[in-house]
Each structure stands twice: as C-alpha cells, then as structure tokens.
Amino acid sequence: MRFLYRIRNWRSELHMLLVKFGAVIGGMLGVLTMYGTLSAKIIRADGTIIDLGPVGMRVVTDAGVAFLVDDWDDDTTDITNMNFHDSGTGDTGGELAADTTLETQAGPTTRATGVKSQPSANILRSVGTIAYTGTLAIVEHGLFSQAAQGGTLWDRTVFSVINVVNLDSIQFTYDCTLTAGS
Fold first, then answer.
1. Number of C-beta neighbours around residue 116 at 10 A
2. What is the pLDDT of residues 155-182, one digit of tens each?
3. Which of these, 47, 43, 62, 69, lies nearest to 127 by C-alpha position?
4. What DSSP element (H or E) covers 29?
5. pLDDT (tens digit, 9 = 90+) per residue, 31-90?
6. What's the Cα-to-Cα distance from 105 to each of 67, 108, 151, 179, rounded to whole Å?
7. Spatial contact of 58 and 64, defined as CB atoms under 8 Å apart
C-alpha cells in the first residue's frame, strides 16, 4: 500500500527531493534553512493501520514566518500555539507560501491538538489525529495556531488523495526542520 501510494503521490515525492536537495545545498553554503515534512498513517475503523510515510514537504507560509517574527519581536503571538492539525479536500490551488487557510476544510470543527516533541536538536514535531464522520477524499493538511477555525496557518501541504470513511482517522506527523548556517 505504501509503495503504491508513493507512486500516486509522485508530484509530492518530486517536490520532497527538491526541498531536500535545496537544504543540502544551503547547508554546504552555510545558509540557515527551515522546512516542514508531513507524514500520515491511516487508522481504519477496524483498527488496521496503514503507514504512508512522508506525504509532502513544504516551506513554512509567509503568515507562519510573520507569526514567528512577531513572537520574537514583541511577544504578541506565541509560537508554541502552532500545534493544531486540520485537513481538507481542496487541491486546485496547490501549495503556496502565501496560503493563509486550507482550500476546503473537511476535518471536525475543532482542530486536533497535536502532541509535541523534539526528536532531535533541530526538529520540532507535532502529532495530531483527526477522526472523520463521513466519506471524504483528504488531499490537504494545515498546522494552525488555534483549535477553532481561523488562526494563523504555519504550513499547508497538498498530497495525493487519502480516502477515509466514517470512523476512520488519519494521524498526521508534522516535523519542522531547521538547519543551522555557518
């Protein structure tokens, strides 16, 4: 299943290679880089778990960067709030650094609260599980600053369809990787 999904998700796979290549070149040039990686596990109603692995990699949004700068500058925001997962069914616009919302929100009204961790010195992680109550074709994920609708979008990732039915869930793992400059 994972192999077949990765074939279907070829555009995101190609994009992930380009982002990784850019991070390697940036590291060689001593440039600080920051990017997000999204992984997904489908949890079927019967308990079956399908690990899709990484489904997309993207830069942080302009709004996310401004949120971080505002937190550092005057503490009017709090970067630790970037921990709420949402999903959607819209993919006509692709991913843009200028994104501020999901194209078509399809998760529950209250976003899933992530569990935060730090798997290494330069990676911040948030894991959130979204439960569905209908049949949907999920193609986008966003990490937001609040549980209610609205808030600031840190990262939006578009990927190939993940079909869910009533009582299925998707566990999203978002890793924000920062590589130091020199």
1. 13
2. 999 999 999 999 999 999 999 988 876 5
3. 43
4. helix 10-29
5. 778 888 999 999 999 999 999 999 988 768 999 999 999 999 988 889 899 999 999 999
6. 22, 9, 13, 31
7. no
Closest to 153 measured CA to CA, from 31, 29, 62? 62
pLDDT of 93-102, one tens digit each? 778 889 999 9
Least Cα distance to 176 among 131, 130, 114, 129 occurs for 114
CA dihedral (131, 135, 137, 143) in degrees, to 10, reads -20
Q: What is the pTM of this model?
A: 0.89
| Tokens 């109550």 found at | 133
d(C-alpha 69, C-alpha 54), whole Å = 28
Q: What are phi and psi of 82, to 5 degrees?
A: -75, 80
Residue 129 Cα to chain centre, angstroms: 12
Distance CA 174, CA 83 (A): 9
Strand spans (E) along 4-135:
33-43, 49-58, 84-88, 112-113, 115-120, 123-131
Q: How far apart are CA 110 and CA 79, in angstroms?
A: 19
Closest to 128 (Cα-Cα) out of 86, 163, 81:
86
